[in-house]
Amino acid sequence: MDSKELEGLVSAALVAAIEGDADAAATAVCTLGERSGRDQFEVYAACCAFAEAAKQALVKIYDDQVPDVSRGEMWSMHQLPGADAAETWAMRFVVAYSNDDKPQAMALWRTALNQTDEDYVASVAAVLSTAASLWRTVKQQEEGNR
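Given the sequence above, the corresponding structure tokens read:
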């Protein structure tokens, strides 16, 4: 898969997920997975793109409280009540990515690869869902400030 196709599928998945179109988001992610294969870089790149979108939303949500990673400040995650394993994995991945902790993000990715197919897909979908949920929060905040 070339970079333009990857970018198009990632964008389509994000837009669909943010708009609440689960079918279109699933179609884009499934197409990406089918064209790249489970162990390929493209799915990791997509998860990083979803995590970047989540990070950008977090920056908008927290505004002046955003940690300065360059000065050693870090994003953190509190325990997520009721979160399943995929949601917890996704938040940990987003936090590692947001903190620019590439070794941790890659270690988390390797754990996802070692899961069952069903759990692997759930983890990838949870990163997309996390980003979409955060962007819906940004939209709600912006609408409330009008």
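Residues 21 and 139 are 16 Å apart (CA to CA). Try to locate this feature in the token string yourself.
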